[in-house]
Amino acid sequence: MDWRRKMAAEPVFLRDDVVAGFLSYDELIPRLEEILGKFSRSDNTDVVQPVRSVIPLHQHNGFMGLMPAYIAYEDLLCTKTVAFYRRNENLHLPSTQATVFLFNPACGNVIAVMDGADITFKRTAAVSAISAKLLMPAQAEILCILGCGHQAVSHYEIFTKIFSFKEVRVCSRRLETAERFAARVQGPVKVFSSAKEAVHGADIIITVTNSSQPVLFGEWVKPGAHIAAVGACRPDWRELDDALMRDAVIYVDSRHGAAVEAGDIIQTGVEVFAELGEVLVGTRPALRNKTTVFKSLGMGIQDAVAAKLVFDKWKSSQ
Ligand SMILES: NC(=O)C1=CN([C@@H]2O[C@H](COP(=O)(O)OP(=O)(O)OC[C@H]3O[C@@H](n4cnc5c(N)ncnc54)[C@H](O)[C@@H]3O)[C@@H](O)[C@H]2O)C=CC1
Ligand SMILES: O=C([O-])C1=[NH+]CCC1
């Protein structure tokens, strides 16, 4: 055969239900803690992840991001493409459309293509849960989730699985979305029509909206609360107001990512106190007694470790 036509083995394609079946929070959380810690070490050379490159698709009210990552000590090479379309909400399609590619790092050929929806939902919620483990008040009784879409579901799942709250509250832009959410999830939840009332007295607040304007205001927030701010991942999008950003201690997943993408940080000019990984490895403290914000943007290394868990499970099932 002509050497120029020689092909590597065909990649396997793993559908969303297959990926979901192989991805558990119990395995994901320790892997995420490990990789976040390694990423944030000052002597890190092993975990390579450029800031996501993004193409805005103004005509469709969306954007597409490319999220490559290489984890040298595991020889793990991965890329996710992720698109986010606000309009999909009205079309009853997931707003996030993601595909994960795993490569053979020795030759560059693709070994697996996976639907990336479940990976994106679960790893994002798992990282928020890690932030809460480190930063929420010791006696956290009330959890409030603002936004009732796909991320809200995975966040509800993991937060109610690993913590016990006296009360879980939700509020979305439309009351019927919050009511649909409450009917869908397994477990108690109180639906609110006002965000201000929903967050009153909450110890932990998760913002998972597709809003580009603040949905959470400092004057509503109980001092000492922890906020996991998951939406607003564009430099011109906001979820939190200036007062909250200025009063809180700010943690991020990646300082570089935050400086380029986090509207809440860029527009207020506040200083980042620490990366979550720095807290995990003990080089920066977890200031649990202060009001804390974890500004999450999502990282390619999170997708990479999740995809490896899925691929290894799939391989051993063959
Ligand atoms: N940090 C990370 O790693 C990731 C962040 N995201 C971001 O998370 C956000 C949520 O994603 P999905 O749940 O997939 O989107 P989705 O479209 O499924 O849900 C968004 C929800 O926000 C609600 N909402 C919009 N404006 C609101 C307001 N003012 N108050 C309360 N609720 C409001 C909508 O009604 C909807 O229920 C998006 O901004 C997305 O870009 C998504 C993936 C990963
Ligand atoms: O990390 C991720 O997959 C995303 N962050 C914002 C939109 C999608």
Automatic annotation (TrEMBL):
Note the Pfam families from the entry: OCD_Mu_crystall
User: Which terms in the GO cellular component ontology are assigned?
Assistant: cytoplasm
GO MF entries: pyrroline-2-carboxylate reductase activity; thiomorpholine-carboxylate dehydrogenase activity; thyroid hormone binding
* InterPro entries associated with the record: NAD(P)-bd_dom_sf, ODC_Mu_crystall, ODC_N
Enzyme nomenclature, EC number: 1.5.1.1, 1.5.1.25
Look at the named UniProt entry and state the broad enzyme category this protein falls under: oxidoreductase
Catalytic reactions on record: L-pipecolate + NADP(+) = Delta(1)-piperideine-2-carboxylate + NADPH + H(+); (3R)-1,4-thiomorpholine-3-carboxylate + NAD(+) = 3,4-dehydrothiomorpholine-3-carboxylate + NADH + 2 H(+); L-pipecolate + NAD(+) = Delta(1)-piperideine-2-carboxylate + NADH + H(+); L-proline + NAD(+) = 1-pyrroline-2-carboxylate + NADH + H(+)
Question: Which GO terms of type biological process are on file?
Answer: thyroid hormone metabolic process
Q: Which domain of life is it from?
A: Eukaryota
Similarity field: Belongs to the ornithine cyclodeaminase/mu-crystallin family.
Subunit and interaction comment: Homodimer. Binds the thyroid hormone triiodothyronine (T3); T3 binding inhibits enzymatic activity.
What's the protein name?
A: Ketimine reductase mu-crystallin
